[in-house]
Amino acid sequence: MNFPGYTVATQYQQGWSRLHGVNLIVCFNVVMFFVADNIWQAANTGNLRSNGGGIFSAGNIVNIAYEPLHTMNTVLGAKLDTPPSPPLIPTPPLEPHNTSIYQEECTVSGMNGVCAPIGGTAEGAVHAAHGPLHCTAQYSIANSNSDVYVLFAFHGTRIFPDTDPLHLEICMLMRCENAPNCTTKSLSATTVFSSFELFGHFDKDTQVLPLVAVEDGKLVDGKMYHFQEQGYLWTAQEFTQPLYSAALWGVVSYMHEI
Questions:
Q1: Contact yes or no for 44/30 (Cβ under 8 A)
Q2: Whole-model pTM?
Q3: Which of 147, 149, 156, 169 has its CA 20 to 30 A from that of 112?
Q4: What is the spatial distance between Cα 49 and Cα 16, in angstroms, rounded to a whole number?
Q5: What span, in angstroms and rounded, lies between the C-alpha atoms of 55 and 17?
Q6: pLDDT tens-digit profile of 28-48?
Q7: For residue 256, pLDDT beyond 80
Q8: What are phi and psi of 136, to 5 degrees?
Q9: Could you tell me which residues come within 8 angstroms of residue 107 by beta carbon, excluding any fewer than 6 positions away?
Q10: How confident is residue 2, by pLDDT bands cut at 50, 70 and 90?
Q11: Is the dihedral of CA 93, 228, 248, 78 positive or negative?
């Protein structure tokens, strides 16, 4: 589950640890590089690498090694509490109802969903719906530049290399420079979202992971954001680094008609 351009493997590692409230140690040394539209290949060399692993405790970063441009040979160590201390979860914010409802079909690495454009104002709220999945994002932008962001919604099946088909439900705040084709190999970002709130209405059988990263695909500490598995992800502290992506990434927990 490593697709530079919108999510990287360390986001899933941290998100899985956060969802299940467990200690997680991950050795990740597979390199994925961009070959062509929607095609990524595993190798030890390539033009774009997103290489890393870490030690996580209930979503908090205990120790991590991440190098997007080079392969690594690193040994990590840490002292872990058993069981880990779960993060405190305050009451989630209220989902906004006064939102932009404009959306268009778009594609993210082979996933054909819908995108709602973000921008034009320093603060706002947008809504995107794909099938039964409804996503809402409320945001505050600290700086203004040429980056184009969208709220991406996807409900469907995605086949990844060397895995069984996954039934996914995704609400994702991400860069998209060439809509409707939002597939990219870039890890860069320059827009700072000082705060954001992401809401999703997921199937009851969907396991939802929080995925958050800033420029170059680097993780942020778990204390920077709050998460509830029912479909809430929101900033706990003001962000000062450009946002790479923030997602509620849902995997339907058993195979059924979708």
A1: no
A2: 0.84
A3: 147
A4: 22
A5: 9
A6: 654 444 444 443 333 333 334
A7: no
A8: -135, 140
A9: 38, 113, 180, 181, 182, 183
A10: low
A11: positive
